Amino acid sequence: MKMRIAVLLAVIAMFCAADAQTCALDGLMSSLTESVASAVLHKVTLSCIDASARGSLANCPAGYKPTGCSCGNACGSWDIRNDQTCHCQCANQDWTAARCCKIALK
């Protein structure tokens, strides 16, 4: 695989002119990047759910990660703990909600 990449780069270098403005390497790399990104995006899906609980902590189910939190009692201060739990920082919270998402292959 490494040899193929080296040969590809050598061929690209041969087609590149000495003047950087006439080199098509930037366009080629951009096209390759877009192609790879497009192929990957067609194979994945983003799945999101809501999780809520009484009190100041709301846990996301296994496999999901919190992407945002919401708190009761007009509290706007929150953080994400242990990459799994939404924590509302105000005292005496009546509820906490988490938006939990995961990326999966189709």
TrEMBL record:
Q: CDD domains, alphabetically?
A: RELM
Coiled-coil spans are: none
Tell me where in or outside the cell this protein is found: Secreted
The protein's predominant localisation is secreted
Give the superkingdom in one word: Eukaryota
Keywords carried by this UniProt record = Disulfide bond, Hormone, Secreted, Signal
Looking up Gene3D superfamilies in the UniProt record yields: Resistin head domain
Q: Sorted alphabetically, which Pfam families does this protein's record hold? A: Resistin
Tell me the leader sequence span.
1-20
Which family is annotated?
Answer: Belongs to the resistin/FIZZ family.
UniProt-recorded name of the protein:
Resistin-like
UniProt organism field: Huso huso
